[in-house]
Target: Enoyl-CoA hydratase-related protein
Amino acid sequence: MEDAVLFDARADGIAVITLNRPQTRNCLSAEVRAGLFTAWDRFEHDPALRIAILTGAGSKAFCAGGDLREMVDTGMAEPPREMFPVPYDTIELSKPTIAAVNGAAFAGGWMIAQACDLCVASTTATFAVSEVKVGRSSPWAAPLIHMIPQRIMMEILLTGNPISAHRAYEIGLVNRLAEPDELLPVALDLATTVLAGAPLSVRAARETVMLATEMGRSAALRAARHASARAYHGADAQEGPAAFAAKRAPRWTGQ
Model:
C-alpha cells in the first residue's frame, strides 16, 4: 500500500505534501497523522525547501476530519493536544505554507487548512466546522476570529453547516479559487510568487503578520521591528535595491 502521506520535494524549493487516503476521505487516522508529523519535520529541516503546499488525494475530500471510528473504538474524550499535526501549533515551522483544498475540508480538515498561512481552494471544495453535529468541540477554531468576522464565525461554529468555496473566498478564508484541474498549478503559482521574494524578508513578513494577531498595536510594532532587523541588515537588503536600479532580477542569497 502507498504511504498515507506523500512527499514531493521539488527542485524549485517547493514541497508538495499530499494526504493519500482518498478511500477514507483523507481523514486524520493514526497513519495519516504519523505521516504528516514526518512530512512537516522533513520540510522544516530541509534547507533546500522554502515553502510547502498541503493537499489531498482524490476529488471528494481534502480531509474529512478526525477518524470518528477510532474515537468510538478508543472511547476518546478530549483528544491530547499533541495528537494532531497542526502547523505552527503542535508542529514548529518557520517557513510559509499553503493549503490547496481539493474537496471537503471538515472539522480537523478545516483545522489543518486554517493553520496554513495561505489557502487556495477548488471551486468544488466545501468547508465545515462540523463538531456540533457529532457532539465534539472545536477549540482549535479560536484563531479563526483573526481571519473572518465574528458573526460569520459564530454561524459556522453554531450550525456546523458547510459553506461553499465561493463563500469561503467571499469571507476571506480562501485567497484564491481554481477550477478542480487547475488547483495545484494555481497553488504552485502562488508558492512561486512567494519564493520570488528575498528569503529573510519573507520570513520577517510572516512573523509580522503572526505578531500582529498575538499582540496589541504597540507591542506588535516593537516585536515586528525586532523580527525585521535581520532582513534589513542582510546582504539581500543591498542586493534588492541594486538589482532594481540595474533593471535586472535580484540574486537572493538568503543572507
About this structure: The first helix runs from residue 30 to 45. The two ends are 42 Å apart (CA to CA).
